[in-house]
Amino acid sequence: MTVVVAVDLGATSGRVMIGRISGGRIDLELVSRFAHGPVAREDGLHWDFAALSEHVVAGLAEAVHREPGIESIGIDSWAVDYGLLRDGRLLAEPFHYRDDRSARGVARVHEIIPPAELYRRNGLQFLPFNTLYQFAADAHLDDADRAALIPDLIAFLLTGAVIAERTNASTTGLLRVADGEWDLELAERIGIPARILPPLVDPGTVIGRLRPELAERIGKDLPVVAVGSHDTASAVVAVPLSTPHSAYISCGTWGLVGVELTEPVLTDAARAANFTHERGVDDRFRFLHNVTGLWLLSETVRAWEAEDGAPIDLPQLLAAAADLSGDAPLFDADDASLSAPGDMPARISALLGTDAPAGRPAFVRSIVESIATAFADALASAAELSGREIDAVHLVGGGSLNSLLCQATADRSGLPVLAGPVEATALGNVLVQARALGRLGDGTLEELRALVAASVPPVRYEPRP
Ligand code: LFR
């Protein structure tokens, strides 16, 4: 039996999970889960990084307490955000990618380098919060000796080693799509000092061992192993893709919709459709588009709870939404006005205009159908741009539990949806650690995925006419 611990930090909640692999099966045990999100400070939206790292260390200690046989730690999180280090100390609390300072960075970068050239170099879809734009708007860059992306920053706190794990580094916009190395010329042109970019490592590399004081608190001296530290990269590892004709949707706060490729598609059409080339584990490309996912629902529920002063039963609300018939009014789930936190029902209503449903179940149905419509559009684009016929869609992550969303995605795309695993990201994290420990042989991605398919059978949704 191989036992490891996965720290998986999503944009609205984090979890620590024990992963066990034995007899051709993989299982997860939830150790701790904590909510988190943007916190408004005087100078903008941040992450409460002190609270986050305390949750991680406490979760790891609890994991080792429950399972002394744990052999390593892997960390993944949402992408693009970072902390600046100087002499081994964090200079300031990391900004949240939804903070609007990045708009200044976009203007500054695009003045120097046109978007078409950027796409040829880094292959990334335009998202205003890509790290390079955040760097360009960051007043403290010159004071720093290193920048570390969130999972790398946590690995640094745990071990003292500063690296840049490659799948997540590919979301900075500063990695060359051609060879996955830092584009130092690009960095120089936009005024980013090369010294802040740490050495790149691939998933499977041992980053370091726990600092002695942390090994003592956690209860064991463990190595921290680089996994696909971008959560989406780990999720895609655990998508039980059966054929090259399957697409995936990794659906949590975001819905990441795409296919896995071995060669990039750097066409004008791909750029116009805003399709990205994020690096996957084993040098695959995650050719995908970001659709605003469950963020729309979680922010809506948060606003209603504040209004009611009481918690809302979301499963009940979704069931009521599923019972409604007739066409739901649709809005563009990707509209830029929905990106910031705040009164989501009002902003969605503004997009729907006079069509905005009055009742909550109908409102929820509009949200879910609008997300499914955006998913279906992105699936069609993925097929067209990659020249690949798609005959099934794997929907993994939290969204896979939302049967209204899964069925609507099947209906609107005309494709069968295979839902699950819900914890794809943690599974991918665990699998890459186990392989690094030498327990899965050379384990190709296909073998890792077969292990997932054998352990977590998907729920199938057929498209209805
Ligand atoms: C999903 C995700 C997306 C990334 C977004 C912001 O959690 O990592 O892949 O585009 O968050 O970091």
From TrEMBL:
User: Which residue ranges does the record assign to the Carbohydrate kinase FGGY C-terminal domain?
Assistant: 247-436
> CDD domains attached here?
ASKHA_NBD_FGGY_RhaB-like
Q: Does the keyword RNA-binding apply?
A: no
* UniProt-listed PANTHER family: SUGAR KINASE, XYLULOSE KINASE
Domain of life of the source: Bacteria
Domain called Carbohydrate kinase FGGY N-terminal: residue spans: 4-237
Q: Which family does it belong to?
A: Belongs to the FGGY kinase family.
**Taxonomic placement:** Bacteria, Bacillati, Actinomycetota, Actinomycetes, Micrococcales
Could you tell me the keywords of this UniProt record? Answer: ATP-binding, Carbohydrate metabolism, Kinase, Nucleotide-binding, Rhamnose metabolism, Transferase, Xylose metabolism
User: What Pfam family does this protein match (any one)?
Assistant: FGGY_N
Q: What's this protein's name? A: Rhamnulokinase family protein
